[in-house]
Amino acid sequence: MQLAALIVILPLMLISYSANAIVNNCQPVSENSNDLIIGEIKLLNSNIFDPNNPDENSTIHKIANTLHIQTRQATIRQQLLFQVGDVYNQQKIDETERILRSKSYLHTASIYPSDICNGQLVVIVKTSDNWTLTPSISVGRSGGITRTSVEIAESNLFGLGKDIKYQSESNEDRDSRFLEYRDDNLFGSHYKLFVKTAENSDGYFDAISIAKPFYHLDARQALSLNTSREKKQIAIYENGLIVDTAGQLTESLNAEFGWSDGLHDEQVFRYKLGWQATDNQFFNVEDYPDSILPVDSQKHFPYIGVEYLQDLYIQRENFNIMGVIEDIPIGKNFSARLGLLDKSWGSSDDGYIISANYSAAIDISQKSLAFIEIGLSSEVYRSAADYNALSFNARWFHYSDFNNSYFLDAELQTADNLLSTNLYVIGGDTGLRGYPIRFQTGHNRALFSAEKRSYFNWYPYKLVKMGVAIFADVGSAWKNDEQADFISDIGFGIRLVSTRQSDSKVLHIDFAYPLDKQKEVDGFQLVLKAKSRF
Fold it and tell me: Is residue 99 a contact partner of residue 111, using CB atoms and an 8 Å limit?
């Protein structure tokens, strides 16, 4: 019996020893891993709060972790630009990190090689979740207008990364109820689906889009099909008061195909062919039956487009949102599109449409960043008035230290033959915070803002970050036959952001004091609004 037992046990011991030898044949990663094969990918996804951190182990943290449905590993794996068997590529690792950090349901994301086992890399993908179920009731006020909203949203449905939202809101334009669904990985693919339907007090809005975008820099093809219908009433303002209203019905269809040679030397060129059809009809509304309406238009045209961008990024904290690491693009980006209008295709006139956009960032120093954006749009017709528009925006950020920064913002928009329903506006949350909403309107708009920002280290329950800002605004909106009437304000504001929530909006509470037009406006304006930036 003993001999028989030895005969059985000895081979098992040899197999176990051999297996352990294979498993333990690992060594630390050297500095350069680019030529090694990825042999294993370990996904380490943690809940919202870390129970091993005393600052994140209270009752409220435990309840949040218990109620939260964690992101599934398959959801994270769908975002990876590499797989087992690929050669390790640091550019793909860095881009995958940025893709993961861009997902609202993830709070942090890092990817790194941990070991070399049997000549192949073990790569760790480490993430942590955000809280994604957000029922909310909000009241906002800006430029003398009160807005209310009731919303329930889930940006990580069943841990699958799907986004669904229902919202009922009331603002200066309309009362609205809408349902929205977004799926960025349809059936586990890289196709995206977006559906939105809204019932409004002045009409409706329905849209559906299905697309396979250039989901990463080295992607070679893209497809998209979008369609929408919208009926609404557009109020026309002067000195912050409604002077006219027009109804508008818009139907739009766009189909596009794109291709690229991929990423080369940190640069990407993309080319696009598409078809755009947009029909605009205007009508009188009951309260303003004698309004002078813009002319109806149909724009049906094929177009060609080109896009250029650079793969250059830096990371910053306390940039747009407090307490979150953000990936800031600092490369150049250029896009242009040319379309040909013809009556035989259903257009209301012959001509062409051209648009172009350019943006660039300047990494001035470790503490200073500057951004420039320029946009051009032109519509040239054979028998109708031409339309031309130019926009310019320059922003400058300077960080004195981790808790203090300065921000300057300069904007300019100018256009000719703007429709009365599309005039530029300024006042309230559209700039000039010390004045009523849409206080000035026109074909031109200029705004300059300066802010001193401070960020507090106080971080209660690892949930909310707080900051303050002192600001000044100068600007105007004016018609082409008028002189610009520049007005200014000063003020201070409080900023609050929930850092562990998927919709990390920055709550702005601003108290702004007008320095001009004292007899026409209130002594101060309260601006209460959730924004995507500080």
Answer: no
| Side-chain-facing half-sphere of 521: CA atoms under 13 Å | 29
The secondary structure element, H or E, covering residue 244 is strand 241-264
Residue 79 and residue 76: Cα distance in Å, rounded? 6
- For residue 19, the model assigns a pLDDT of 44
If one counts every other C-beta atom within 10 angstroms of the C-beta of residue 506, the result is: 19
Q: DSSP 3-state assignment of 461?
A: helix
Range 190-205 burial, b when 16+ CB lie within 10 A, else e:
bbbbbebebebebbeb
Question: Exposed, middle or buried, 148 (CB in 10 Å: 0-12/13-18/19+)?
Answer: middle
Element (H, E) at 202: none
| CA 293/CA 295 separation, integer angstroms | 6
C-alpha angle 296/300/304, rounded to 5°? Answer: 140
| Cα–Cα distance measured from residue 512 to residue 427, given in angstroms and rounded to the nearest whole number | 11
Task: Convert 94-118 to b/e letters by CB count within 10 Å (16 or more is b).
Answer: ebbbbbbbebbbbbebebebebbbe
**Bridge-partner residues for 388, per DSSP?**
378, 416
> Which residues, in sequence order, are CB contacts of 302 under 8 Å at separation 6+?
273, 274, 275, 339, 340, 345
Q: What is the pTM of this model?
A: 0.87
Question: What residues have CB less than 8 Å from 531, skipping those under 6 apart?
Answer: 505, 506, 508
Q: What pLDDT sits at residue 508?
A: 86
What stretches in the chain show pLDDT beneath 50? 1-6, 8, 10-23
Round to whole Å and give the CA distance between 524 and 510: 10
pLDDT of residue 10: 46
Q: Give the β-pairing of 120-129 and 38-46.
A: parallel
Structure-token pair, residue 444: 């031109």
Could you tell me the strand order of the sheet in which 120-129 lies?
A: 26-28, 106-117, 120-129, 38-46
The pLDDT value recorded for residue 417 is: 87
Q: How far is CA 58 from CA 67, 132, 462, in A?
A: 15, 20, 11
Domains of the chain, start order: 17-129 (3.10.20.310), 133-531 (2.40.160.50)
- In this prediction, residue 140 carries a pLDDT of 62
Q: What is the pLDDT of residue 7?
A: 53
With helix as H, strand as E and coil as C, how does 72-141 read?
Answer: CHHHHHCCCCCCCCCECCHHHHHHHHHHHHHCCCEEEEEEEEEEEECCEEEEEEEEEECECEEEEEEEEE
Distance CA 472, CA 277 (A): 42
pLDDT of residue 142: 60
Of the candidates 324, 331, 350, the residue with the CA atom closest to the CA atom of residue 339? 350
